[in-house]
Amino acid sequence: FANVVIHARVVDEKGKKMSKSKGNVIDPLVLIDQFGADALRFTMAIAAGPGRDIRMSDKRVEGYRNFRTKLWNAARFCQMNECFNWEAFDPVGVKGVVNRWIVSETAQAARAVDAALAGHRFDEAAQALYSFIWNVFCDWYVELIKPVLSGADESAKTETRQTAAWVLDQILKILHPFMPFVTEELWDKLAEFGPKRANMLIVEAWPDLPESLIDGEAAAEIQWLIDLVSGIRSLKSEANVPGSAKITALLVNADPVTSARLERYQNEIDRLARLDYSNTADAVPKGSLTFVLDGTTVALPMEGIIDIGAEKARLAREIARCTKDIAGIEAKLGNPKFVERAPPEIVEENQERLAALGVEKSALEGALARLGEG
Question: How many Cα neighbours within 13 Å face the side chain of 201?
């Protein structure tokens, strides 16, 4: 063999070596029966980073079973909306910004997977696939194209169907080495009502997507939309805003580019961020939650929506709890006797808990600061 790759040791979820005498042996056949071979295979790949053991657990494999289900549901959505394989489709010619964006993201994901595989970094390749398929394709692209597919613009609908089918085909090809069973099944299922496949997926050529497909302009525009919606959702979550509340979003002193983007994507923003409406404004209303996006202040007026004083008190209590817990763990880890005598997995567990508390405290402090600004 020209190259031999030795993966890390597989241990139990607590980091201990598997042993029959300890009763912590994990049977891969049991995991396959519970969650499927694809989920276990993907778990092994994404956890196979150099220099660390692979911690195996039911919960971890179950998470990648959910990833498989997410892809299946997205493919089912595409099939129901007649997104069939179009042999004559050329991704270079797409005109819609959302379609140009997803073509660009697909090309970048494929190139990232290629580079990772060339360096025998199977974990990085799997992570690139996971992020693109779950976060970009399933969470954003599918949501963004729903109004188009149910709309009256037949030209836009046709292009979107063709683009979605093309992207899904590329996903199945580059995911196939990691999840061969579900991808082969979907490859067949997606051709049930459209042109038949010439080959099984396993003998299809690996995608070679040129750099010319990467569209920086479309990427910047849709990333702005994603960041805006994500920021609004985050503010609403931090402030415990009821899901049924009628919320408005105001872009304060927006420049011409931002104002034009808001006009183009206002329906998408209002729908995805669950807003009553969004608009531009000259000043931040009193009692607003705010964040800054590309130099523009985004304000969510909270008057009559939440009790600002009560929410500040709740956040202060949560910050005090985090501070107390952090102090306790720091004292424990600062004790040489504890570090020397405690099992390594307990020390690591405390270190991970300390890091998580730090992130939580930082987020709470940010939320409190934003309420104070309002």
Answer: 23
Whole-angstrom Cα distance, residue 341 to residue 356?
A: 24
Containing 290, the helix (H) or strand (E) segment is: strand 288-293
What is the CB neighbour count within 10 angstroms for residue 353?
A: 13
Report which residue type is found at 189: K
The residues, any chain, with a CB within 8 Å of residue 276's CB and separated by 6 or more, are: 246, 247, 248, 270
Rounded CA-CA distance 95/107 in Å is 16
SS3 40: helix
State the Cα–Cα distance between residues 140 and 105, nearest whole angstrom.
12
Total Cβ atoms within 10 A of residue 177? 18
Length of the chain: 374
3-state secondary structure of 138: helix
How far apart CA 275 and CA 289 sit, in angstroms, is: 14
Cα–Cα distance between 270 and 129 in angstroms, integer? 29
Structural contact between residues 238 and 360, judged by C-beta atoms closer than 8 angstroms: no
Label the pairing between strands 54-55 and 248-252: unpaired
Residue 266, CA distances (Å) to 217, 224, 249, 302 in order: 19, 13, 11, 20
Q: What is the pLDDT of residues 296-317, one digit of tens each?
A: 999 998 888 877 788 788 888 9
Question: Looking up tokens 């004292």, which residue turns up?
Answer: 331
Q: What is the pTM of this model?
A: 0.83
Q: What is the pLDDT of residues 228-284, one digit of tens each?
A: 999 999 888 888 888 788 899 999 999 999 999 999 999 999 999 999 999 999 988
Question: What's the N-to-C CA distance of the chain in angstroms?
Answer: 64
Neighbours of 164 (CB within 10 A): 26
Helices (H), the chain: 28-35, 37-46, 58-80, 97-118, 122-130, 142-149, 154-175, 180-189, 216-238, 256-272, 308-333, 336-341, 344-373
Element (H, E) at 296: strand 296-301
Strands 248-252 and 296-301: antiparallel
Q: Which two tokens stand for residue 131?
A: 């992020």
